[in-house]
């Protein structure tokens, strides 16, 4: 099927005209173009107090108010749900490891319709609680939450979602013909019509997803094969970009030449002019870059954003390879996520977009597959993350705020992260990389980055910023205190490829892994053709980090380097003259920290385009560091 704008629009059913589609997308709080905002961001709270942690306390008080639901229960078995039998299979459980696991039998009873009917009835009758009892359940389609509905998994409830991609292109609200019935979604911070997430809500209010304890499991089956070739959701990741990765050097069942998100997809247009005829030739060539790698799905969607292609023409789904997040909530207000375990997700584990007043508490986010970020709040206002454990194949927490021109929801702001534990992952607390709309007023405190898998699948870095001259945006008013890292972070360096002619030579700066604090303003620059938005990074305060050493067999070390700050690289800019100012990272204070013993004892700090980094009472390798540092 050829992916062209006219044929795509003709696939919408007769009762859904273009005008009605645009109205529906607008009502959903999603931009129908790129010329403005349909959902105004709430103004950021003022931080005039001398102690910024008073503002963190105020955010916590606001979000501690419990949600209220009508006292009525809706048991899914009353609507026809039946438990399923399981069989044992060998499946992928991480990038490189397979193990014997359980999955529903081939003729398992599907409880999709029963869960949907229970939720819709509960919503229609004024709200209440939809109950999934103990037992094994199979769902071949998305669970769609509605206002005033509390979906609760009792202890021992194990909900297995179908691992067949086509089951998430059957029930969406937009009929896209051969691409399937798709869902309004976001993929890596770009709007699109795509496979539905396993659990989804859009423009709903007062909703909860909870479990009685961590025996209540939501299982994405990301590593279970869906065809005879042995491919699974994770195979679609395709080629990896990190150089010298530890425990993540291959993708499950992927070999060069297989379809993936970063392989050219012949269904995508051969030229942007086919779908954006008003696009000027100079901009077209900038967006497409050299060759045709821009036609790979993971590059094609950002190209559509840069070209100003509206949402209703950004059609993916069947025939494409953009994996959906496990749990995605768009434009929702008053949300509680609490008390369950989520496991083996196809893509990001939790992805709230443009949500206000959202709490995630006592959740075990456990997925070691590609892009298995634990919690990715995007363009959200007032967020509390507490008492959670993250064991991830990517960032544990990654705060995001739009990418390319999809910034209509504004910044992510007023976020508190506290009393959480992090195990494997790329970054424990990460800002970016998709942050074009900006990130501000973020508070992280009282955290344990345990890194229990340090020998085989280590935490890459602890506090992490990722952006570049494509993603741009800003990070400001970011505060961190009281973090324990008893087993350090990765003790070898990992890298990203630099652009030709860059002053940052490839394989020289450990921005992908190896430092405790990593600010990377040149994040994987070869991935982005358009590099015209210098980021701003300022007003960051980190204190009370305590890093322990581990016996690596070659010595007792805590990390490769203590601090790596790679500011924006001006030579990456490729837009029209004159080159805009490319500011240094500034206003960063790190104090009262002990970083343990780095491997790179001669160069424990790396700084580039950094102005006046202040170190106060900092110990690295037993040596005291105090003063102002620039690079």
Shape: globular
Percent range of helical residues? under 10%
Poorly predicted regions are 1-49
| Share in β-strands | 25-35%
Largest sheet: 22 strands, mixed
Report the count of strand segments: 39
Termini Cα gap: 52 Å
Radius of gyration: 23 Å
Question: Which structural class fits the helix and strand makeup?
Answer: mainly beta
Number of helices: 6
Q: Write down the overall mean pLDDT.
A: 92
Topology record:
Elements: H1 5-10, H2 18-27, H3 53-63, E1 73-75, E2 86-92, E3 98-104, H4 112-124, E4 128-132, E5 135-139, E6 143-144, E7 149-153, E8 157-161, E9 174-175, E10 181-187, E11 190-194, E12 199-202, E13 205-211, E14 217-219, H5 281-288, H6 297-306, E15 327-330, E16 333-338, E17 341-343, E18 350-353, E19 356-361, E20 364-367, E21 381-386, E22 389-392, E23 397-399, E24 412-418, E25 421-422, E26 427-432, E27 439-449, E28 461-466, E29 474-485, E30 515-520, E31 536-547, E32 550-551, E33 556-557, E34 561-566, E35 585-594, E36 605-608, E37 610-611, E38 613-620, E39 623-629
Tell me what you see in this structure.
It comes from Undibacterium squillarum. The structure is a single chain. This protein has 631 residues and is mainly β. The protein has six helices and 39 strands. Strand 10 (181-187) and strand 11 form a beta hairpin.
